[in-house]
Amino acid sequence: MCRRATSANSAAVNMPNGATNSLLGRVHGAVDDRSVYTPAVPASTVFDAVLSYDFGMRYQQWKGLSAAVNVNNVFDKTYVSLCTAGGCRWALGRTVLATLTYRW
Fold first, then answer.
1. Pair 89, 78: CB distance under 8 Å
2. Minimal CA–CA distance to 12: which of 47, 51, 65?
3. CB-count exposure of residue 31 (10 Å: 0-12, 13-18, 19+)
């Protein structure tokens, strides 16, 4: 199995009211290594996003409480994540994870 080169670039915006917005672009490089008898895997680019909010920044009595929503593969791109001698695997589609955290 060959490893794919992966690079990522991100941009984040911190708002004074406790909100943070982030966008991450991931680029997975192409793999074409015929020496391991696997099919070529084309390059792909996917985007992830995060929106978080720190309630303690706005309301002192809620210090330590935060919420976040993470979205991976925002545009639900279909692509091959890897190929081995046993076959190829599709990457995960769009996934959304919401969290509510309290730190004391």
1. no
2. 51
3. buried
